[in-house]
Amino acid sequence: MSERSILITGGAGFIGSHVVRRFVTKYPQYRIVNLDALTYAGNLENLRDIEDAPNYSFVKADICDAEAVAKVFKENAIDGVIHLAAESHVDRSITDPLSFVRTNVFGTVTLLNAAKDAWKDRMGSAPLPGRGGGGEVRFYHVSTDEVYGSLHDDSLFLETTPYDPQSPYSASKASSDHFVRAYGNTYKLPFVLSNCSNNYGSHHFPEKLIPLMINNIRNNKPLPVYGKGENVRDWLWVEDHAAAIDVIFHTGKNGETYNIGGHNEWKNIDLVHLLCSIMDKKLGRIEGESAKLITYVTDRAGHDLRYAIDASKIERELGWKPSITFEVGLERTVDWYLANTEWLDHVTSGAYQEYYTDHYAQR
Ligand code: NAD
Ligand code: DAU
Q: Are 46 and 22 in contact (CB under 8 A)?
């Protein structure tokens, strides 16, 4: 495989750190530049094991800072972008929508401009949308299934499902998706895009359902289930998402969108009970003890009922499929958090405490 210089944004976050690790270790001939603003969600501890690799470098910068981003493109001769940097938590988007517009929309467009300017002499040769091949430069935008809205029957999200975002977070991600496609159409920027379902795994910030529940079970704190716990999410192991990103970046067709999902739907309340039962065993508690911590709290405003992905396109066209079952992935995940309680304690100290207290006190 040829040499490349790839910019990964948001590489200090949950999914980004798995993508960075995969690319740095699997492709020693690539130079991987991780650009991250290190917000509350970004943590360089997530990358300690690879930070000294000769093909890896880190730049602390904000994707909204056009000058800083242009400098990174120039100094590193970037020829590929995998864009993950975002504000990612739906609850925070309800209390502070503008920061989601800033990073997810303005930041994405700033990055698109930098790519368009840096690649102006290399975009003309890019293949037309849907005609295959990555071209010599490529912008990969990592997005979410939430752009499709909420399912109220037993159907699945397809790549052709119309956009119907329901939260400020999903509206900002939908907007960024539209900008990426618009740059493809208007400036012939070669791009690929993927929309993935809920990820779980190691290094997941404990404001999100699974790591929050694991952390609270371990600390004997209430387990806040929104509404009746009837909402359904389709869970995918984060390393399988990183593998899908690898496959799409290298073999996805220019201008195409790929849905990524785990065929793994769970009602929140059933998932929380499963976690309680796994944790009871791991912590040597009597079966049923952790479940006593379950507390039903006020529902999320505008809470999407169900997400579920039809991932047959990426499976059929690119040969990707999830590598492990949910049972195996969840057990590995719980084991990781229990072996990394220092990480949990560190990321939940400081500003997180304030967020947590405010957020759950209001429920
Ligand atoms: P995360 O919140 O864990 O990480 C986001 C990272 O982006 C952090 O390292 C943060 O410091 C960085 N960042 C935020 N604002 C920035 C800015 N202005 N400039 C530079 N860096 C900035 O998020 P995640 O869960 O890893 O999600 C990564 C991407 O994948 C997001 O685009 C998200 O929309 C998408 N996604 C997430 C999921 C999921 O289940 N977590 C599913 C599908 C898609
Ligand atoms: O579908 C992909 C999306 O999945 C990503 O785009 C988002 O970045 C990611 O955060 C995730 O969004 P969700 O809102 O689905 O994830 P979250 O972990 O916040 O919530 C999962 C479900 O659990 C949801 O129905 C709300 C519920 N929930 C969440 C929290 C934090 C609770 O019942 N209690 C809680 O305390």
A: no
Q: Is the distance from CB of 112 to CB of 70 less than 8 angstroms?
A: no
User: Average pLDDT in the 200-220 region?
Assistant: 98
* CA dist list (Å): 209 to 198, 204, 305, 351: 10, 10, 15, 19
In this structure, which residue's CA is closest to atom 19 in ligand 2?
Answer: 208
The reported pLDDT for the residue numbered 339 is 98
pLDDT of res. 356: 86
224 Cβ inside 6 Å of ligand 1 = no
Q: Which atom of ligand 1 is nearest to the CA of 89?
A: 2
Show me where the domains of the chain are located: 5-200+236-260
Structure tokens at 234: 């389709």
**Which class would CATH give 5-200+236-260?**
alpha beta
Query: Phi and psi (nearest 5°) for 276?
Result: -60, -45
pLDDT of res. 1: 60
Q: Which of 185-189, 264-268, 358-362 has the lowest mean pLDDT?
A: 358-362
Does the structure show a pLDDT above 80 at 85?
A: yes
Instruction: List residues with catalytic annotation.
Output: 145-146, 169
